[in-house]
Amino acid sequence: MNNQDLINITKEFGSPVYIYDSERIISQYKRLINAFKPVRNLKINYAVKALSNLSILRLFNSLGAGLDTVSIQEVKLGLEAGVDPKKIIYTPNGVSLEEIEEVAEMGVQINIDNLSILEQFGSRHPGVPVCIRINPHVMAGGNTNISVGHIDSKFGISIHQIPHLMRIVENTGMNINGIHMHTGSDILDIEVFLYASEILFDTAKNFKDLEFIDFGSGFKVPYKEGDIETNIEELGEKLSARFNKFCKEYGRDLSLAFEPGKFLVSESGKFLVKVNVIKQTTSTVFAQVDSGFNHLIRPMLYGSRHEIHNISNPGGKERFYSVVGYICETDTFASNRRITEIKEGDILAFDNAGAYCFSMASNYNSRFRPPEVLWHEGKAHLIRQRETFEDLVHGQVPFQFETQKAKKMSK
Questions:
Q1: Closest CA to 93 of 65, 74, 107
Q2: What start and end residues bound the annotated signal peptide (predicted)?
Q3: b/e burial code for range 322-352 (CB count within 10 A of at least 16 → b)
Q4: Binding residue per annotation — 46?
């Protein structure tokens, strides 16, 4: 996509609007596959929470990927997209036993991350294959909200609880067919990841009937030119060799699984907004746009950086702007950012808008969520309509209040 393509999309579908480039998604998927070529059995399960549009799920299904889901609703989206339930792994956190049982009935791979539910599920369904989610207590992540491998994390079963875990497995006779590692997001140091992997390999030796080992994901993607990212090729080379060695020690070939979300879709996405107002105060020039953190919350929630380009004036002189939204509270996308000169009516493009952007959008301030467009084979395809007022009130049940005048007349 070039700038004119993006501008044409805003003319056709309005702004704000999300756009995803299928070619970029496919190239990232192939990059990951190629990095782990030495592994005989590789499973890539796309993390649905990153971007859950049905068309995106269908794209991954066409590539041969499975899905990583965290809710029964995501499981149902995957099935709606035509994905084989055997290619879906369900990794919830803190959900009810009833939800897990309902998902198990769908034929989906269950992944359990706490001892209480493990014992209850194993006692009631010992024949159902279960994966166990392990917390190796290895920290990874660029923000406290996504660095969740610490000992007090709500995610995963602590490696220090392995003896208790083994008692549950032995007492219930349940079928453990996989183990899973949880560390967090934005992994930069490959050696830290490999260290955590050794803990997982050591844990795997406790189980004799494994079919796969799931290393999660959390790969760091670049958010600006020259930004650091996870070296997938180096990780693939080192982890593949170690995994193949472990399989020989274990006595048979297992599948190596990953659950990337951001790595696959982040860079494919653009978020386009229109500048409503240029407002200058004593020290700041604001570019106020027709969106807010109701549509893209990551800068406010995580302090994340999204590069912003004025595609209406790409060759203009650079000035400093604070790009802010129209939500009725502090709503800042970027502070004092160098952007080519902006005028009212210009279109700004946000990079890295494919992951955790639309999927975290809301109707705060009663604003409509924007449409989603897939750029595929040189054409723009609408894959989600812009919401309407009817969508906003759908499901609401208005309560009828008696007016004061009617109350007086009834007396």
A1: 74
A2: none
A3: bbbbbbeeebebbeebebbebeeebbbbbbb
A4: no
Burial (CB < 10 A; 0-12, 13-18, 19+), residue 144, is: exposed
Q: How many CB atoms lie within 10 A of CB 149?
A: 23
321 labeled binding residue: no
- Phi, psi torsion values for 296, nearest 5 degrees: -145, 100
Instruction: Classify each residue of 89-122 as buried b or exposed e, where b means 16 or more C-beta atoms within 10 Å of its C-beta.
Output: bbbbeeeeeeebeebbeeebbbbbbbbebbbbbb
Q: Calculate the CA dihedral of residues 13, 15, 17, 23 and round it to 10 degrees.
A: 70
The domains found in the chain, sorted by start residue, are 22-264 (3.20.20.10), 266-393 (2.40.37.10)
Nearest to 153 by CA among 141, 140, 137: 137
- ∠ CA 258-264-265, rounded to 5°: 140
Q: Binding site annotation covers 318?
A: no
pLDDT in tens, 161-212: 999 999 999 999 999 999 999 776 677 788 888 998 999 999 999 999 999 9
CB-CB contact of 57 with 47 (8 Å):
no
* pLDDT exceeds cutoff 70 at 143: no
Positions marked catalytic: 328
In sequence order, the 6+-apart residues with CB closer than 8 A to the CB of 248 are none
The reply, when asked if residue 356 is annotated as ligand binding, is yes
- Residue 130 phi, psi (nearest 5): -130, 135
Query: Alpha-carbon distance 197 to 136, whole Å?
Result: 9
Q: Answer whether 179's CB lies under 8 Å from 203's CB.
A: yes
- For the chain, the average pLDDT equals 93
User: Whole-angstrom Cα distance, residue 309 to residue 306?
Assistant: 10
Whole-prediction pTM: 0.93
DSSP conformational letter for 86:
G
Q: Which residues contact 335 (CB under 8 A, 6 or more apart)?
A: 322
